[in-house]
Amino acid sequence: MIRTDDVGGLLKTLCPMFVLVDDCGRVVQVGPTLQKLRPDYPMAGQSFLDIFELVRPRSICTVTEMLAEPGLKLHLRFQDQPQTAFKGLIAPLPCGGGAVVNLSFGISILDAVRDYALTSADFSGTDLAIELLYLVEANSAAMEASRSLNLRLQAAMLAAEKQAYTDTLTGLKNRRAMDHILAHLISTKSVFSLMHLDLDFFKSVNDRLGHAAGDYVLQQAAKIMLEETRSDDTVARIGGDEFVLIFKGMSDRKKLGGIAKRLISRLCQPMRFDGSACSVSASVGTALSTQFEVPKAMDILHAADLALYAAKRNGRSCHRFYCELSDARQSG
């Protein structure tokens, strides 16, 4: 008869993943860490091979054969899910009548620690697994710190990149962003239209009511332009009161004319600032990428600029398309 009081207490301290079996292969006692892996399934009293599947050596099929080979190294796994893998070593009891099977996780220790929320308290004080757990914990802390730092760096880089392409007053794209977008559209041979919009009488607002009023007008104008364009269109402030609107995939003059008409109509409405009316209007010139055999950003911008100044010469608060005649470029 196995004296569990003599053996079990000692094994709990030295080998918290032991299995004490009798000579019939029935589990008499298990270590606290091993039982923790199956908290709702008492192992004592069960057949060893009902709990564990013997993977290697393949020549061993029964507990009797297993107990007949002291020092035998085993590869085991749980019969049920999750099928955690173990390494084992058999040591016969000095008094006979059974054996101790000492188990360890081997290379699957990290998975076991994660799956069962094990801590250093679940291992023997001299087990090298504790050292590994400390290393894993330190590595995890270092990896988390590195990940956090990388996230902060990425956020800072994104913020810096966004700032580099954003007009700080209006939140619109700036000239640098416009140049980048135009270069991309041209390199991909995309069809697009470019609208050059200038606020008329803006200088008089600044002179009469001050720069704060002028800033307010620019911000309200930016809001109107965003509301009248699509999410994949580009609205950029490229100068004091100058804006460029880029419409990707759009070359329909009727649609473009409708957008320009709505912009002019809304921008002509007085804007109230500190009780005073800020009155401006808008002149707009538009050029199409399809008007150029070999589109170049400089040429399209120049064409839209010509159309804009044709609108200004026509009395302002109106829209003109750029067109090419046989002998010279004109706007009309």
From TrEMBL:
Tree of life domain: Bacteria
GGDEF domain sequence ranges: 190-324
InterPro entries: DGC-Regulatory_Protein, GGDEF_dom, HNOB_dom_associated_sf, Nucleotide_cyclase, Rev_trsase/Diguanyl_cyclase
NCBIfam families xrefs: GGDEF (TIGR00254)
Descriptive protein name: Diguanylate cyclase (GGDEF) domain-containing protein
Origin species: Ruegeria halocynthiae
